[in-house]
């Protein structure tokens, strides 16, 4: 067992974890952060995507111990404390960018990262930017629309979060 | 303060509005209830040992070491449950003599596909359970893998199941002459002016819902509460009761948030039964969640047919007959509706065309592969592919424009209702309108000019244009029809509407969504029918304890069957409310107008005191029950069970323009336009989403996906690395439009939409690819049309067309030849 300190969605945790425990399993099983989900076992689907120190990562590709000292944001920490949705969340709702919603947490985290790097992506850049996140329901078209809307919203408000 | 809800501020119709979804809030904030999120006190976690062999007898299993592993609570094999596990149920014995050899949840003496469950470990946590799997020692005596359907039914083939005499499970046949629905096929085939025969391969696909399947079972007394990632909580309840001998009233099934299904969560699964068996044996709650690799290997697959299709026509292009023979791979076992899937296509091969004669024969065959069952469209994508591909081939044979040939043969809008050669009555449709709109949107004539120009100058990147003018039958289904097809259940749906004291409304439905947006669409219907606010309607589903009656969600049935049950229940509520209103307004029931949620005495100026009552006021008056009509029970609540009289027949025209690089084999969809007619729209936004997702899956069949087995029967596409579900960069943006020809078979005028995109799109794409490559002598490309297959087709097409013989009696036109299956077998590219 190894001791780690992490901050997840604004709360500090100190835990003993097995060295082999994946970050996503630590989040789900030890912290109860069930908003983040597991869709595959080969790091292909992106359903588990979270932000670690501001960068999106597939939390099934990292060991929990690798996140020691890190600051993690999951889908559960995306909205403001008063419940105001993050522009990406709002755009996903406004543009019907989710159906079953299983890919959505990871997809939104990936989009948030994409827009941090490229605030005004073209359609092709969006499609490439989210190609590590699979969605079986939407055919991606409304996700692309949502990303465009979120980008416009973020740039008009000058905000980034 | 009043307990009565204010009447809604605006009363414009909800039906037809692109309402944003009620479902989204918890999904975008991560407050989800996926089954795998569940944790119960004392819960044990399961891991399943799966067969590495496609076909073998189990000579011994030693679990003693595994039982000693830390944290392991119990290990069970098929022997431990042999007396209690029964068989994984199949509800569709399509013929009286269909052979069903039985399907144990845990293999007892033999394994028949890679991934079949052999033993289960229960441990205090999942990691301990998984770690201990390696300590189970199983000895197998290998048997020969049975992989090729035609070889499987040839004399001398090894049998998949020792308790059968053939690998053929059933032969199901329909012939229009014998059925009295058309002319005898033999006459049509005996002396045709033109015949085209083709063999098409429907490759095996995997539904690949994003949420892996998961089941939690809590034993309670004699009974169980089951949470499962399923499309069918109600059917699962009944089937678990029947399979395990638990009284049905003691079984409660809950489908919480379910992350996609696409048919993949239709059957009752071995894992659901195993989890229930373990939980009951241990007297502890148990959870099993599959990994993606387990899911791809053991959750059922779809499609996998060999289609031999013959079309006959007059030289002027009028079609005269259609003769279809299918081999359908059942895999190792018959799942819930697996045998019936091809039958759902049986009635769809004639599609929108006026065939006078038709024959359909399907042989269901066992192989040592993962079982097959429904995958989005279930039988209808296969049929639509077969007919839309052969129409193109006939057009080439006749030297005709493929759209013109379709137009010559399709049912014109004046001809509805139209009874087809299979005896189905299509209630409504307008193929001309959808087609005209689609052609215009894509700029067809301009694209044809460009194609000619690029052909002319031998552009290495050729342009192909593909058509799919489809219809489908959905809204499963009239119970009488299901009965005539030997399905063991009905196709009705149930809804109940409860009007609360404050005027808010609860609608309890028997359909069970997993991404479709039922809560939103059903709220819109109820808001309009009762004149209450959209936000005042709560839709309750997915728990057999609250939603006591239902037939669940599949086959694009939720709106066209379940939605109508809701309409009927609301009609009953309004009738009861009218009685209360008449009593309290001291008016005659017949003198009350009901509009926008209020009853008003006709002829009395609006707004005058005592002349009108809102639904909210009536609800409160009914709740207090101080002053109700004599003999009236104090409740507005009503329920309805609706059994449709007919299927729903959405249709549409899908057009695809594809660029094909003949030097690299790479193809890129340049434009995809579809005009779907799903009748009266309830929520256009949700319809569009359904079409987008459907297109993605249909295009994926054409270009990307295939479940491939090696010679030993191992699935070689067992992860998302190899089973290539398309990502955003693999797909284009689509142009999706609609025409609206209301269904006449239901009061909302609605038609199903869940499967249309998948059903229609595959042949549009393949027709486009083949169209691009006709100058190279190519007349078919096996799916998925990978760059390698396209490249090979380009470079062997000419040679192949020289070789082709038979299959055509016409002369002239382009070369067509019979696809001899040379690219259909042997090369798993
Ligand atoms: S679960 Fe992490 S990429 Fe699939
Ligand atoms: S919304 Fe279902 S997988 Fe993306």
Which key features would you list for this structure?
heterodimer; A: 161 residues; alpha+beta; Ubiquitin-like (UB roll); DNA polymerase, domain 1; 2 domains; 5-stranded mixed β-sheet; B: 829 residues; Aldehyde Oxidoreductase, domain 4; 22 helices; 28 strands; disordered N terminus; disordered C terminus; binds FE2/S2 (inorganic) cluster
Task: Walk me through this protein's architecture.
The complex is a heterodimer of chains A (161) and B (829). With 161 residues, chain A is of the alpha+beta class. Chain A has helices at residues 23-30, 87-94, 104-117, 123-129, 141-157; strands at 2-8, 11-17, 49-52, 55-58, 71-73. In chain A, strand 1 and strand 2 (11-17) form a beta hairpin. Chain B is α+β, with helices and mostly antiparallel strands and 829 residues long. Chain B has a domain at 8-32 and 492-633: Aldehyde oxidase/xanthine dehydrogenase, molybdopterin binding domain (Aldehyde Oxidoreductase, domain 4, 2-Layer Sandwich), CATH 3.30.365. In chain B, 29% of the residues lie in helices and 22% in strands. A seven-stranded mixed sheet of chain B has the order 3-5-1-12-9-10-11. Chain B has a five-stranded mixed sheet with strand order 7-15-14-13-8. In chain B, helix 12 packs parallel to helix 21 (756-773), helix 17 packs parallel to helix 18 and helix 20 (684-703) crosses helix 21. Chain B is globular and about 85 Å long. The chains are: A alpha+beta (161), B alpha+beta (829). At the A-B interface, helix 2, helix 3, helix 4 and helix 5 of A face helix 1 and helix 20 of B. The complex binds FE2/S2 (inorganic) cluster (2 copies).
Write the layout of secondary structure elements.
The complex is a heterodimer of chains A (161) and B (829).
Chain A: E1 2-8, E2 11-17, H1 23-30, E3 49-52, E4 55-58, E5 71-73, H2 87-94, H3 104-117, H4 123-129, H5 141-157
Parallel strand pairs in A: 1-5
Antiparallel strand pairs in A: 1-2, 3-4, 3-5
Helix pairs in contact in A: 2-5
Chain B: H1 24-28, E1 44-50, E2 56-62, H2 64-68, E3 72-77, H3 78-81, E4 110-111, E5 117-123, H4 126-132, E6 137-142, H5 149-152, E7 168-175, H6 176-179, H7 185-190, E8 194-205, E9 214-220, E10 223-228, H8 233-244, E11 251-254, H9 270-282, E12 286-289, H10 292-298, E13 302-313, E14 319-331, H11 341-346, E15 358-366, H12 380-398, H13 402-409, E16 418-419, E17 425-426, H14 431-442, H15 444-456, E18 461-471, H16 479-484, E19 493-499, E20 505-509, H17 518-530, E21 537-540, H18 558-585, E22 592-595, E23 598-601, E24 612-614, H19 615-624, E25 638-642, E26 651-661, E27 667-677, H20 684-703, E28 735-739, H21 756-773, H22 787-803
Parallel strand pairs in B: 1-12, 10-11, 14-15, 20-21, 27-28
Antiparallel strand pairs in B: 1-5, 2-4, 2-6, 3-5, 7-15, 8-13, 9-10, 9-12, 13-14, 16-17, 18-26, 19-20, 19-25, 22-23, 23-24, 26-27
